[in-house]
Each structure stands twice: as C-alpha cells, then as structure tokens.
Amino acid sequence: MKNIFKNSFGLLFCWLGLISSGQSHISYVGRDFGALDPTSPQVVVISSQRVTSDFGWASGTDANLEDSHKLRAFKFSMAQSGDVQIRVEGISFVSGSISYSALTRPAFSIYQGLAHESPALADHDTSPISASYNDTTYGAGNWLGSFRALNDWKIGNDDGKTFADLSSFTYVGNGADGSAANYGAAAGISGDGIADGMVVQTLSLNPGSYSLFVGGAQYYGLMNSGGGTGSNGFSVTLTTIPEPSALSLLAFGLGGLVMMRRRRSQFSQSSTNPHQNP
Ligand SMILES: [Ca+2]
Ligand SMILES: [Ca+2]
Predict the structure, then answer these.
(1) Distance from the alpha carbon of residue 200 to the mean position of ligand 2, in angstroms
(2) Cα(155) to centroid of ligand 2, in Å?
(3) Which of the four pLDDT bands, split at 50, 70 and 90, describes residue 221?
(4) ∠ at Cα 92 (240, 75), nearest 5°?
(5) Are strands 98-102 and 198-205 parallel, antiparallel or unpaired?
(6) How many angstroms separate the alpha carbon of residue 236 from the centre of ligand 2?
(7) Residue boundaries of the structural domains of the chain
(8) 4-243 architecture in CATH?
C-alpha cells in the first residue's frame, strides 16, 4: 500500500486520491485496497472515482445483465476471515477543469475472484469468449453485458479460447442505497432504506482475493427514461472490524481466574502463617 500513515486514533489510514481513467475494460489500476488484516483496525479510502451512469449496478440485477463498463472494479485480499465494513458514498469533485457530480444512489457487490490483470489483456463484455459464454448461459443475444449484481458471473479477454480461460466472480454480497423505489424489485438486494447518496454494509468474509464492483442503483430511472449518464463521482471506504474470538475470550477469562486464585491463596497463606518464610 502507498502513502500510509497513522491517524490520531491509531487507525491505519491509506488515502489514494487517484483519478481513474475514462471508460475502460475491467482494471484495478489505482483501485487496489491491498491486503486487509481483519484482526486489527484498519481504514482504507479510495476516492475521486466515477462511473458513466447512475443505473449500472441496478441493471445488473435483472435478467439481461449489464455492461461491466458501467461499473468500477476494485480489489482487495484477506489473509484470514473477518468482518469488513464497506461504505460507498456519492461525492462531487473537480479534476482539472472538469467537475463531476455525485453518484446519486450508489450500490456495490462483492465477489471472490479477480479479473485478468496486466500483462494479460483486460476482460471485457464483447470479447469473443465472453460473448460465446453469455450466449450459451443466458440465451443468444439476451444480455447487455456480463455483469450480474446478485449472482456469480464470468468474463474473458480477447485471448480467451475456452470457457476455462474466463475470469470467475463468485457472488458474496451486496449493498444498495435507498429502497425498491429506486433500485427495483429484484430479490436479494440489501437496501439500506434511506436514499441519501450513501450505503454502508458489513460483511463477514473468508480468506481470499475479492473484487468489489460499484455502480448506480437507479433502476426505475433507467426503465422510465433511459437513465442518467455522464460522470458520477463516488468514494469507497473499507474498514476492518476486529472481534476478539470466543477462544481468546475464554483464555482471557481462565487466565484471570487462575491469577485471582493464586493471589487469594498467597494472601491466605501469608495471613494465617506469618512466620513461614522469615
Ligand atoms: Ca439489465
Ligand atoms: Ca443510504
């Protein structure tokens, strides 16, 4: 990780104020949270991000999927299992002479697995192997892209020859700003009920490598009026939530009992037998 410093609360902060490039194939460049240690408090922020629509995530909840270019991919790893809080917030920001408005209804999904990374070619929705897989899996032409917000999905690069060459994303969980009134009626959406431009969810994660996809949750805006496009800004914050394990609590409790008994026994020996150790 880069630019690491400790704040006054002793938490580890890593601020990557990186401006991502324009619409591109799946990439984690500038969007790598690094290795998270769920046994210690850690906060990692990646800000000044943007997506090209306000509906990309929500469109991935229905039967015809969505183009993954309408989302942003991030990655991180976990050496051991633990709880991680994911916070995605729409933010407006200025980069150079361009002003970006805030993503109005942010949402995210987390998957085990990573996309191809350099030096391999980047994965994208219309590579021959992606198209072949989507036609076979979802029905010929019945897909806008490869992204699925609430299920496993696969996508490949232009070098892919067989389905074994595809990158696999195994669905873990999601979080969405607002309610069904904005993100639609698909089953399994973890809405936060308050449409305020921010979503926070805590997920228990197993060890492994993870991809986090962020996009907009304005499903009915898309259905009714074609959806909002342009640049929609947001930031992502990952916070580890350490928990003392049941085992360490037990060990702590037993240790305390042993200490108390030892002290009690020393006290009773010294008070009842004052001349034993002259
Ligand atoms: Ca769709
Ligand atoms: Ca919210």
Answers:
(1) 7
(2) 30
(3) confident
(4) 35
(5) unpaired
(6) 14
(7) 4-243, 247-278
(8) Sandwich (2.60)
